[in-house]
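_Backbone structure tokens_
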Amino acid sequence: MFLKHKTFSSSQLTLPSSKSYHSLRLRLALYYGSLVVSALVFFTVLVCGLTTNALYNSTTSSIHAAAQLAMAEVSRELLPTPPYWPTQLSLHALNTYQEPGIEVEVIEAQGNMRYDTDRDPTTRIPINAETTRMVLSGQSQRFQVVANGENVLVEAAPIYGGNSQTSASPHPSATPAIGMLLVAKSLREMNTTLLQLRTLFLIVGGAVLLGTLIGGWAITARALQPLAEMAKTAHNIALTTAQGTRIGNLSQRVKRPGRHDEMAQVVDAFNGMLSDLEKATLGQRRFVADASHELRAPLTTIQGNLSFLQDHEHDLPSEERHRMLHDAHEETLRLTQLVEELLLLARADASVDTSFDDQEKLNAATRAQPVELDHLTLQLVRQLHGRLKAEQSSLKLEIGHIEAVRVRCNEEQLRRIIFILLDNALKYTPADPETGCGRVVVSVEQEGNQAMLQVADTGIGIAPSELTYIFERFYRADCARSSQGTGLGLAIAKTLVEQAGGRIAVESSVGQGSTFSVWFPLA
């Protein structure tokens, strides 16, 4: 099954709408609110549990204290002999010091009421038969019951005869109990307090949650504002990008936040990316314009000569036809060289694009076969010596300090790098007015863990303001425009050097010459 190519317009390739940004902001606010709710629930459960336990212990303590006081009073008023019960129990101390809300009942073993705090037979403390049996058998009990529609906490203790009981604890002897003491207190106050506490937590928690959501929304909106600006900037660039390959206005920048945090780093990285894209786009446009200009010149010459020959083939003398054909052939060779250099740069760019970083480039250079840099340099110097001799040039190409070094690099690429540097040095080194000749000195030596190739000349030199541009494609210094060339040589050399894991630098003075230095990693 074949896949068809599809062309997308700028209207199709748009950024996500602001809804995605708002949903992210909403999610962050909800996440923050969920954390706060979880913390509030945990805090509420903890506080309510501790408060409930404290109130219950307080109520239990109150009942137990009242039971001890009542048991002491009962024991004091009991008769020393059976049936032990006086005609009437007064319990004056209990009536005097009794805590409000506590009800006390004293019941005989036969079930007769001996004492009731409120003296109301319709409001007796409920107790079942099983609990009664256990209390009369000597086991104190504490339990909750519902009395008159309210939850009541009750403590029941056995009463023994003989004035020997002084507390609400079980009697030490095996004497049967003659009755039981019931002390009850309503839990309405405790329940009301807990209800108020829960209501307070609910109201405060709701207010805190609402404030948290609003504050979280505002905080996330402020924190994510740079992202919104980035999305807006990218969207504007996409909108200004016409259908095809035209890139929109890349000069836009996102305002950097005043704080120094991760978001500021993201904005800096985004603005840096835009700067690099703008620079690359401008370089590409300039490259296309320069390439078009360089290609137009030879094509115009070839077209003009061939058209003239076609129109005046029989009118021109043979010498003139031969000259025009020779010019067309020279321009064709120049055009071929230019196209080859452009293809070389394109291949080098493609190779660089597949590399991740300098370490990857160094690894690629390490995998290459070792090349003897000194032998290759001497070989090219001998070839150029032959060319200078054939041209009867007065330039002197000399060998400086040469050391035996080996580098890992593609031999053909290394040959091209050396040739470009030597050819440039010879091209821009005129004859010295005094001596009648110029000098180009080549040296190869080891410098640490690197091999250094150096080409020094006594040529026209390069102005300091132009040193940063000489490695750009199609750039030619003002003093070099009169010479033939495409302006791609140094750009190719720099690209190939970097591809081999090395680096290139230049030092120059106008009128005194230039020195190009290239460092390669040793094999």
